[in-house]
C-alpha cells in the first residue's frame, strides 16, 4: 500500500529563527493529521540542524531541498548527501523545476545526485514536469516520460522503495494556475504506467506520486480524490502551518 504524503518545500524563505518557529507550529498541529498521512518539511540547508531538533520524536519528517552530485571535495558552496544525512534529515528533493531552470540541472546530474542520496540513506523526492510551451505543443507526455526514465533507468526496483515522484507542471508553480484535477490525474496515471512498464505493476502501485503545482487548501480535496494522486509537494501554502495542515487533512 503506497503512502499518502504531504511535503512542504519552503524554498528560499524564512530566516533560521522564523523557520524554527514555523517547524514548531507544524509539529504542534501535526497531531490533527491521520496516521496514514506522512508529513515532510523541506527547509533551506541552513535550517536543517535546528529544525531536526524540533521535529525529533514527532511524526514530521525532514528533507533538504537539494544535494550535490559529488561525494565531497573542492566544490565551494555545495552540500553533499552525507552532510544532509548528518543533520538528521531523512529526505532530499532533487530535480525541482527551479533547479533545472535557473541552475542548469540536467538528468545526468540527477542520476549522480540520486545515487549519492540513496547511498547515504536518504529518501529522494524526484521532481518531473513540463513547461507551458511543452504542454501547449502537446509534448507533456514525452517530456515527463523522458525525465522519469532518464533518471530511473539507472536504478532498481529495490531502489524505488526509497524514491517518491513529484509531478510539477512548471506552468503552475508560483503562478496561481493549477492543473485541473483531471489534467493532473492524467499525467500521474501516465507516470505510474511508465513505472509499471519499467519495474512491473507492483513497484508502480507502491510508488507515491505527488502533485506539485499551486496545491492549496482550496483545491487539495479535488486533487487528492484522484486515484493516482497520493499527496502534494506544497510550495507557498507550506509557509503557513495552518494551510499546510489543512492540505494534509484533505484526503
Strand percentage: 15-25%
Describe the main β-sheet briefly: 8 strands, parallel
Task: Report the uncertain regions.
Answer: none
SSE order, as H and E? EHEHEHEHHEHHEHHEHEH
Number of strands: 8
The dominant shape is globular
Compute the average pLDDT: 97
Structural class: alpha/beta
Kindly report the oligomeric state of this protein. single chain
Question: What separation lies between the terminal Cα atoms?
Answer: 15 Å
Helix content: 40-55%
Q: Please count the helical segments.
A: 11
Short recap of the structure:
The chain has 251 residues and is α/β, with parallel strands linked by helices. It is built from eleven helices and eight strands. Strand 2, helix 2 and strand 3 form a beta-alpha-beta unit.
Comma- or semicolon-separated keywords:
single chain; 8 strands; 8-stranded parallel beta sheet; alpha/beta
Would you write up a description of this structure?
The chain is built from 11 helices and 8 strands. The chain starts with a strand and ends with a helix. By secondary structure, it is of the alpha/beta class. The mean pLDDT is 97. An 8-stranded parallel sheet has the order 7-6-5-4-3-2-1-8. The radius of gyration is 17 Å and the shape is globular. The longest helix has 19 residues, at 181-199. α5 (107-119) crosses α7 (140-152) and α10 (217-224) packs parallel to α11 (241-248).
Amino acid at each position: 500500500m503506497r503512502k499518502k504524503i504531504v511535503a512542504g518545500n519552503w524554498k528560499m524563505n524564512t530566516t533560521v529563527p522564523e523557520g524554527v518557529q514555523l517547524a514548531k507550529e507544524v509539529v504542534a498541529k501535526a497531531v490533527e493529521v491521520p496516521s496514514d498521512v506522512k508529513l515532510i518539511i523541506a527547509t533551506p540547508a541552513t535550517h536543517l540542524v535546528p529544525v531536526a531538533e524540533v521535529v525529533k520524536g514527532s511524526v514530521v519528517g525532514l528533507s533538504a531541498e537539494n544535494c550535490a552530485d559529488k561525494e565531497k571535495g573542492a566544490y565551494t558552496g555545495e552540500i553533499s548527501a552525507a552532510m544532509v544525512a548528518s543533520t538528521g534529515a531523512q529526505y532530499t528533493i532533487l530535480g525541482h523545476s527551479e533547479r533545472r531552470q535557473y541552475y542548469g540541472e540536467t538528468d545526468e546530474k540527477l542520476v549522480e545526485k540520486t545515487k549519492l542520496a540513496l547511498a547515504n540513506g536518504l529518501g529522494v523526492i524526484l521532481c518531473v514536469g513540463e513547461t507551458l510551451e511543452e504542454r501547449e505543443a502537446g509534448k507533456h507526455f514525452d517530456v515527463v516520460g523522458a525525465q522519469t526514465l532518464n533518471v530511473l533507468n539507472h536504478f532498481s526496483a529495490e531502489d524505488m522503495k526509497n524514491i517518491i515522484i513529484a509531478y510539477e507542471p512548471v506552468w503552475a508553480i508560483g503562478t496561481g494556475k493549477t492543473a485541473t484535477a483531471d489534467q493532473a490525474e492524467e499525467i500521474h496515471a501516465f507516470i505510474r504506467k511508465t513505472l509499471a512498464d519499467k519495474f512491473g505493476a507492483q513497484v508502480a502501485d507502491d510508488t507515491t506520486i505527488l502533485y506539485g503545482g499551486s496545491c492549496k487548501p482550496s483545491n487539495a480535496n479535488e486533487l487528492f480524490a484522484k486515484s493516482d494522486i497520493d499527496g502534494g509537494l506544497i510550495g507557498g501554502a507550506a509557509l503557513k502551518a495552518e494551510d499546510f495542515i489543512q492540505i494534509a487533512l484533505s484526503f
